[in-house]
Specification:
It is a multi-pass membrane protein. Its main location: membrane. By secondary structure, the protein is an all-alpha fold. About 65% of the residues lie in helices and about 0% in strands. It has 2 domains: about 425 residues, Up-down Bundle (Sodium/glucose cotransporter); about 55 residues, no CATH class.
């Protein structure tokens, strides 16, 4: 009797699975209704809508950061990465410790000391409005390019296990996300993230445990993975063209994730919504621990998938079209007989996608309103008009994401595509903030030319690389998989039926287009310094005698003249005389705000 490679083929989503999935969407909707209607009196102001009144609790903010950073792309594509290329990507988990340290001790003090709520406002305070407008534009463009991918991936998983049209699913779930984000603001986003984050953890854990048990135990999984060369982590190859090595996974992701987590408005908006800097740092350390645990589970899931199909690759025999669809296929195979479990998994993937989408929609609406609508004074600014405008922006952005699903469907390897798109501007953003916070002599000319050069150069490199990939001049063949055991499942195939894929061997000199996509953010960051520092020098470096120390990280205050630091300390002492009582929360009286504007010459941005 011929065995079946899976006892639970596509399209076997049960009533229990639909019930679990519906409950998850129902909870998210209910949270939006609660904060949109039942807490309406407390949610009148724009600050309350975007920042929760800066009174959000540490733990929910930490869970919200975890849920939004581990998008549907991570849940679906990281296991595919492990299956195809091995465990090298896991290095991002321990690297997150260093990333969190950098954010906590370089970026967070500057944001809190300058009362920043919109992280791009810092660029105006440090350099000029032109620098802020340029970087804000690149951020908005980047989010609009990448956001449709984040929500389309969960729809891909649902379609794989249910057989329902992928665009219908995409439209329904995007509609739910738009609804609760519009109604509830940041509070709804954070608390739905908490629920969705717990769903993600439970789902990943159960899938891994049940998968390992069905394969025959942890030792069997590791033996099969080792035999397939999937456990190599410390590949110390010093070759920038290799897709993943220890150096790309650690150093490359260090620059990518530091910018993405610490300098993205959707993240900064939540980091500064807690009462104090100590709360923000605590939230980030909790995030670090939770992220590392779930990312480890996610990576190990890919290893378990390889162990399950180590002798009969579902992609080669046509059961799965591409690696990004392997996880839902595996879930339906391994736990499909347990009523409701596929529904739990799909809820996990959608939770990840919804968390990322809602966080970005909320921050994007606030950013567009403040920078592109309010300055034109098209109508009288009130909290009510601002909130209504931002809700319309969320609606329009959500409809755009649904429509873009038609294009995203044509993409190849999703993880590589996401990193590539993000890297067009991510290096410039990382570079300009680091230039401002770590190099006090940088001026507005150096910042603008440095960031613009980074975006131009990275666009050129990435465009050239994509052309080379389309011409088959660059490819990243996956590690070998086997079909030796497929005859047991009724597939009459052998290894000879599938050509061996090899990367093109080019004996020509090194080409910048050939570098691994993981290095793009690193190259972009250094471009800002390579251009920004010389331009600042030749156009007249920042005069440190008229410099505000709060605008650079405390770690490099030793670079400033002693008299500048003393002036800053005397200003603090005078402020303490004016306000002898300790400030328990981050709030300002009218008198304090007036003094702040008068002394620092900065019009604080009120969201």
């Amino acid at each position: 009797m011929v065995k079946s490679i899976t006892a639970n083929p596509q399209g076997q989503f049960s009533v229990e699975d639909y019930a679990v999935f519906t409950i998850m969407l129902g909870i998210s909707t209910a949270i939006g209704v609660y904060f949109g209607f039942f807490q309406k009196k407390k949610n009148q102001t724009t600050e309350e809508y975007l920042l929760g009144g800066r009174k959000m609790k540490t733990f929910p903010i930490a869970i919200s950061l975890i849920a939004s950073q581990l998008s549907g792309v991570s849940i679906m594509s990281v296991p595919a990465e492990m299956y195809s290329y091995g465990a090298q990507y896991w290095i991002i988990a321990p690297t997150m410790i260093l990333i969190t340290m950098i954010i906590n001790y370089i970026f967070v003090p500057v944001f809190y000391n300058n009362h920043i709520t919109n992280c791009y406002q810092y660029l105006e305070d440090r350099f000029s409005p032109a620098v802020k407008k340029f970087v804000t534009f690149t951020y908005v463009l980047n989010i609009y390019l990448i956001l449709p991918i984040f929500i389309f991936i969960p729809a891909l998983a649902f379609s794989q296990v249910s057989g329902i049209n992928i665009h219908l699913i995409n439209g329904i779930v995007c509609g739910v996300c738009i609804f609760y984000t519009m109604l509830g603001g940041i509070k709804a986003v954070v608390w739905t993230d908490v629920v969705q984050g717990l769903i993600m953890f439970v789902s990943c854990f159960l899938v891994v445990v049940i998968g390992v048990a069905k394969i025959g135990g942890l030792s069997e999984v590791l033996d099969r993975a080792a035999a397939g060369n999937r456990l190599e982590i410390f590949d110390m190859t010093l070759d920038a063209t290799t897709r993943q090595t220890f150096w790309t996974a650690s150093v490359g992701n260090l620059f990518l994730w530091t910018g993405y987590l610490g300098l993205s408005q959707s993240c900064v908006q939540r980091i500064v919504s807690v009462p104090s800097m100590s709360h923000a740092r605590a939230a980030l350390w909790i995030f670090c621990a939770g992220f590392s645990v779930i990312m480890t589970l996610n990576c190990f899931t890919g290893i378990v998938i390889f162990a399950k199909y180590f002798d009969c690759d579902p992609i080669k025999v046509g059961l799965v079209q591409k690696a990004d669809k392997l996880l839902p296929f595996f879930v339906q195979d391994v736990v499909g007989n347990l009523k409701g479990m596929p529904g739990v998994f799909i809820s996990c993937v959608f939770s990840a996608g919804l968390s990322t989408m809602s966080a970005n929609l909320n921050s994007l609406a606030g950013l567009i309103y403040e920078d592109y609508i309010r300055p034109f004074k098209l109508f009288k600014h009130t909290d009510a008009s601002a909130n209504t405008t931002m809700k319309v922006l969320i609606l329009v952005s959500g409809v755009y994401c649904i429509a873009m699903g038609l294009i995203v469907e044509q993409f190849g390897h999703i993880l590589q595509m996401v990193v590539t798109i993000a890297s067009v501007t991510q290096g410039a953003v990382m570079g300009i903030f680091c230039l401002g916070m770590l190099w006090p002599w940088a001026n507005k000319h150096g910042a603008l030319w440095g960031s613009a050069s980074s975006v131009i150069v990275m666009s050129w490199i990435i465009a050239g690389a994509q052309i080379a990939i389309s011409n088959k001049e660059i490819s990243y063949p996956p590690k070998p998989t086997s079909v030796d055991g497929c005859y047991e499942y009724g597939y009459n195939v052998t290894a000879n039926d599938f050509p061996t894929l090899e990367a093109p061997q080019d004996e020509a000199e090194f080409s910048i287009y050939n570098i691994s996509f993981v290095w793009y953010s690193t190259v972009g960051t250094f471009m800002v310094f390579l251009v920004g520092i010389p331009v600042s020098y030749f156009t007249g470096s920042q005069d440190l005698r008229n410099f505000r120390p709060k605008l650079i990280s405390p770690l490099v205050h030793w670079l400033l003249p002693e008299e500048v630091l003393q002036n800053d300390f005397s200003l603090k002492a005078e402020n303490e005389k004016l306000n002898p009582e300790p400030i328990k929360e981050w709030t300002f009286t009218a008198h304090e705000e007036e003094k702040y504007k008068e002394r620092l010459g900065v019009i604080e941005q009120t969201l």
